[in-house]
Amino acid sequence: MVATASAHAIEQPKFAVLQTTDVFEIRKYEPYVVAEVVVGGPATDAGNNAFPILAGYIFGKNKGERRFDMTAPVTQTAVSAPLKLEMTAPVTQTPAAEGFLVQFVMPRAYTLATLPEPLDARVKLREVPEQTVAVIKYSGTWSQSNYDEHLGLLKKALSHAGIATQGEPLYSRYNAPFTPWFLRTNEIWFKLK
C-alpha cells in the first residue's frame, strides 16, 4: 500500500508501510527530489540557519523566478568530515562534524530536469533514491532532549528487533515553527541495510 501520512495537509513523498510495531514502523519510500544546503551547528540551530536559504529557492530565488508550494518533511542530518561540503557558518557541535545537511522535499510534479537552477550556489538539487527506513514518530518541542530521548528509544527497539541500520539518523519535521509544540509531528528516520 502506497501512502502519504494522512495526518498532514501538505504534500509528502510517497511510501509504503512494510511493518508497524509499538515503537516504530518500517517504510519504503519512492524516489523524491530535494533542495538541500549544508549549514553549521549546533543541531538545534541548523534548521533556522538553513531555512532562509532554502525558502529563498522555493519562493523564487531561482532561474525563472518560479515559486513552489512548501512540502514536508524538512529533514536534517549531521554530515561528517569526509564529505567536505561547503559551510555557511562555523560548526560548534562536535569536532568530527562538518555541519548539518538540511533538505526541503520538492513537489512530486517536478524532477531534476524540470526544476529551475538555484541562484544561490549553496543550494543543491538531488534525487533521493528509493529507500527503506525505520521511523519513530513523536510530538512535542524541537529540543535536543526530546530528539535524544526518541532517538534512544528507536535505537533500542531496532537493536532488540535485530534490525541493522546505516548512516546517520535523519530528523524530519512536519510543521511550521508557529505550530504549538503539542501539535507538532516529528520523526527520526534510520536507513536500513
Describe the overall structure.
This protein is an alpha+beta fold and 193 residues long. The protein has two domains: 1-31 and 129-193; 32-128, Multidrug-efflux Transporter 1 Regulator Bmrr, Chain A (Alpha-Beta Barrel). It is 18% helix and 34% strand. The chain contains two helices and ten strands; from the N terminus they run ββββαββββαββ. The chain has helices spanning 43-58, 144-161; strands at 2-3, 15-20, 25-29, 32-39, 74-80, 97-105, 124-128, 131-138, 165-173, 186-192. It has a ten-stranded antiparallel beta sheet. A hairpin with a 4-residue loop joins β2 and β3 (25-29). The longest helix is centred in the C-terminal third of the chain and has 18 residues, at 144-161. Mean pLDDT is 88; it is low at 1-8 and 82-97.
In short:
By secondary structure, this protein is of the alpha+beta class.
Give the overall silhouette.
Answer: globular
Number of domains: 2
Tally the helices. Answer: 2
Chain-averaged pLDDT: 88
Care to count the β-strands?
10
Question: Order of strands side by side in the largest beta sheet?
Answer: 1-2-3-8-10-9-5-6-4-7
Largest sheet: 10 strands, antiparallel
Q: What does the radius of gyration come to?
A: 16 Å
* CATH level-3 fold name of the largest domain: Multidrug-efflux Transporter 1 Regulator Bmrr, Chain A
CATH superfamily of the largest domain: Regulatory factor, effector binding domain
Please identify, by name, the CATH architecture of the largest domain.
Answer: Alpha-Beta Barrel
N-to-C order of helices and strands: EEEEHEEEEHEE
